[in-house]
Amino acid sequence: MSGPELERSATGVTRAGEAGIGDPVLWHEAECGGYAADLRFWEQLAADGGGPVLDLGAGSGRVSLHLARRGFEVIAVDSDPLLIEALRTKAAAELAHVATVIAPMQLLHLMDGPEGRARVLEGLLTLIEPGGCFHAALLADMPALGSFKPEPMPDVRESEGMWVHASIPAAVEIDEEGLDIVRLRQLVGPDGTLEEEHNVIRLERLEAELLEAEAAALGWEVLERTPVDETEDHVASVIVSLRAPGGRS
Questions:
Q1: What is the pLDDT of residue 96?
Q2: Which of 43, 52, 96, 154 is in Cβ range 3.0-4.6 Å of 73 for a Cys bridge?
Q3: Antiparallel, parallel or unpaired: β 74-77 and 53-56
């Protein structure tokens, strides 16, 4: 890197949901914003649903904005208030019933087990129209036990004032319950100073068969699965589709 000599300052490890260095919105956009392989699937599913779309874990709007630009009515929700503010979405209390709900980027792998997934599936039944559909992306296959180092190609975003957010894949650590995705986040200031930390995201094991069984037990109808091919930078996914009870068959 050209310019002032970098001054390094290690700041430890953060996990999803914890405060860390830099701008959370720019980290999210750097690490998730470049993924586009699934967009055509969400667009088609939204068109098939024929009504408003509720985007769970919307972040700063990767999928929500894509759909909105194409004329779909979208309600985006996320647990991070900074991402919600960035997207300027409605508060959960203002949600109307929707015809289609989507959960991209393996959101259901982050729900802390069967009880957390049950709360999601039960809560959606109070928001979705009778016969409305819920489509959730899961990992197509969980890797074998062990660990490996991904190709260290950084995801980079710059902000006004020349703050640079660079996120570098560091490791994937896999055990019987799930996997940890470890990234080295580097924040470079306008004066060349560098702060860095390791960020860890935990994805629990969740097969499509298990999610479908859990949903069926709560009254959801299991529909088709849609594969999303792997890309150079992202693993393959499968979109599990469910229909809420009460609609026309």
A1: 56
A2: 52
A3: parallel
The pLDDT tens digits for 228-249 are 999 887 889 999 999 999 866 5
Task: Give one DSSP letter per residue of 154-200, joined into a string.
Answer: PEEEEETTTEEEEEEEEEEEE-SSEEEEEEEEEEE-TTSEEEEEEEE
The closest of 125, 123, 105, 129 to 203, measured between CA atoms, is 105
> Are the CB atoms for 23 and 165 separated by under 8 Å?
yes
Counting every residue written for the chain, the total comes to 249
* Domains of the chain with bracketed CATH: 7-31+143-203 (no CATH), 35-141+205-243 (3.40.50.150)
Is residue 68 helix, strand or coil?
Answer: helix
pTM of this prediction exceeds 0.85: no
What pLDDT is attached to residue 77? 86
Cα-to-chain-centroid distance, residue 246? 29
**pLDDT tens-digit series, residues 72-83:** 998 888 888 888
Q: Which of 169, 191, 161, 150 is nearest to 30 (CA)?
A: 169
For 201, the 3-state DSSP assignment is strand
Widest Cα–Cα separation across the chain: 66
